[in-house]
């Protein structure tokens, strides 16, 4: 990790210390993804089959994972993994069930009723990464809120696994089954996003797409979300990241382990350590070397550490300011009074408080959602929650008295904006009410 002394940096140096790894050539990436999406839109299943052969080495991908194949894979599931998935499912369900929205009704003026209602999104597509690290935990993070919201259709897509064979992890199938998902397709990458967004003969179009993925998946999600004929997406995202804020009392072995748990995600992941203790930074560096040597994904972690940072600050208050400036996806706080610091953070997507709360807890089984905005988006974008699986809409109803009460103000405002038709829609009603009132008086 590169090491910086915050107080010795000028403004430009401080910005450089908090810079994310540069993303790949976006122009080439965008063009390649656009071509993949166009081919899927034009050729449908035939394009998906061709991409399965090109990228996955499959000469005959049935696309949809049959019920029989799902049951075969479930038979391979180890009992201890099944139990772990069930524990995680229960905790995630408990936390998200507490987020159920409620409809509200307010009488803003006498005779003017306004309502806010929530209804589940009709069809959602859940993208589950595969590759070197299949993620059944992501199935739960997406499938549980879709299930709780009552989305009528939830479809799962995931890369098919090793070349020349369909090799979906049984943990993914079991997690999907717990969430009531049986519609599973063995496709990945930008082509999977295109299929979800526009539909093919085998895969019906969805309304909204959820889930993390590589840079091709991320770019494809961005592109389809900008097309009115495509689909909405959960959030913008980039490479995964963690910032650990620790003081002299933190356990350096714990800190190093937390940094490495994020670094092993991918070579473009970034980990940041911020501390007011020089000795803590020294000890963490020693622990990093020792723990890194034993990691199966050492090569990946080494690449991530190459663009990671250790930042020494003059005091804890400055460390908090540095943390807020970075706006981390994951923030781990290992300080003397970690709970007291929590209220001072205003830009982290998910916070892990105290020595016994590693980021791994949120990734798997504490109950919070691990689908989070990255690359600084957490300043304005929230972590995934149950409400993301609903659409919210308003209802308003005016009685005759309500029209009398607010109608004149509406006319005045419409005239101020030179929108005469708007004003006239109200004038006609006010006139009708006045006539009705006169007739009643004459009677």
Describe the protein in words.
The structure is a single chain. This protein has 17 helices and 14 strands. It is α/β, with parallel strands linked by helices and 443 residues long. Strands 1-11-10-9-12-13 form a six-stranded parallel sheet, with helices on both faces. The protein has a five-stranded parallel sheet with strand order 6-5-4-7-8, sandwiched between helices. The chain is globular and about 90 Å long.
Keyword list:
alpha/beta; 443 residues
What layout of secondary structure does this protein have?
Elements: E1 2-5, H1 11-17, H2 26-43, H3 45-56, H4 67-74, H5 79-97, E2 104-109, E3 112-120, E4 123-127, H6 136-149, E5 153-157, H7 170-178, E6 184-185, H8 189-198, E7 208-210, H9 215-225, E8 232-233, E9 241-246, H10 252-263, E10 270-275, H11 278-292, H12 298-306, E11 309-312, H13 316-326, E12 330-334, H14 338-341, E13 350-353, H15 359-364, E14 390-398, H16 400-416, H17 420-442
Parallel strand pairs: 1-11, 4-5, 4-7, 5-6, 7-8, 9-10, 9-12, 10-11, 12-13
Antiparallel strand pairs: 2-3, 3-14
Helix pairs in contact: 2-3, 2-8, 2-9, 5-6, 5-7, 6-7, 8-9, 10-11, 16-17
Average of pLDDT:
94
Give the fraction of residues assigned to helices: 40-55%
Q: Helix/strand/pairing class, anyone? A: alpha/beta
Strand content: 15-25%
Radius of gyration: 27 Å
User: What is the end-to-end distance?
Assistant: 89 Å
Short description, anyone?
By secondary structure, this protein is an alpha/beta fold. It has 17 helices and 14 strands.
């Amino acid at each position: 990790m590169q090491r910086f002394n915050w107080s010795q940096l000028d403004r430009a140096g401080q910005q450089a210390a908090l810079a994310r790894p540069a993303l790949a050539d976006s122009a080439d990436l965008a063009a390649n993804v656009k071509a993949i999406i166009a081919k899927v839109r034009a050729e449908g299943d035939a394009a998906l089959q061709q991409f399965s052969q090109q990228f996955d080495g499959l000469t005959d991908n049935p696309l949809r994972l049959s019920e029989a194949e799902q049951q075969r894979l479930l038979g391979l599931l180890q009992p201890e993994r099944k139990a772990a998935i069930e524990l995680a499912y229960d905790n995630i369900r408990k936390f998200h069930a507490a987020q159920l929205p409620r409809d509200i009704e307010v009488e803003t003026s006498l005779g003017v009723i306004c309502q806010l209602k929530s209804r589940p999104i009709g069809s959602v597509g859940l993208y589950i990464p595969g590759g070197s690290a299949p993620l059944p935990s992501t199935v739960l993070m997406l499938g549980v809120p879709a299930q709780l919201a009552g989305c009528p259709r939830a479809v799962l897509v995931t890369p098919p696994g090793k070349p020349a064979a369909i090799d979906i992890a049984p943990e993914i199938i079991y997690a999907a089954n717990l969430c009531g998902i049986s519609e599973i397709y063995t496709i990945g990458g930008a082509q999977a996003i295109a299929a979800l967004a526009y539909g093919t003969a085998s895969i019906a179009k969805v309304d909204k797409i959820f889930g993390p993925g590589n840079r091709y998946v991320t770019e494809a999600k961005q592109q389809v979300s900008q097309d009115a004929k495509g689909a909405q997406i959960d959030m913008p995202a980039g490479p995964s990241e963690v910032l650990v804020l620790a003081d002299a009392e933190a356990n350096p072995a714990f800190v190093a382990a937390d940094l490495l748990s994020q670094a092993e995600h991918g070579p473009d992941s970034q980990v940041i350590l911020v501390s007011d203790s020089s000795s803590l930074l020294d000890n963490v560096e020693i622990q990093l070397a020792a723990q890194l040597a034993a990691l199966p994904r050492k090569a990946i972690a080494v690449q991530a550490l190459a663009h990671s940072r250790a930042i020494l600050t003059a005091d804890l208050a400055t460390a908090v300011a540095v943390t807020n400036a970075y706006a981390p996806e994951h923030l781990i706080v290992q300080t003397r009074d970690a709970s007291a610091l929590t209220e001072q953070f205003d830009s982290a997507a998910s916070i892990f408080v105290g020595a016994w709360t590693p980021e791994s807890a949120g990734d798997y089984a504490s109950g919070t959602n691990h689908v989070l905005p990255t690359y600084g988006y957490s300043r304005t974008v929230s972590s995934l929650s149950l409400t993301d699986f609903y659409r919210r809409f308003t209802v308003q109803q005016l009685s005759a008295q309500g029209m009398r009460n607010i109608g004149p103000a509406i006319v005045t405002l419409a005239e101020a904006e030179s929108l005469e038709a708007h004003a006239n829609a109200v004038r006609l009603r006010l006139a009708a009410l006045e006539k009705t009132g006169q007739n009643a008086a004459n009677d």
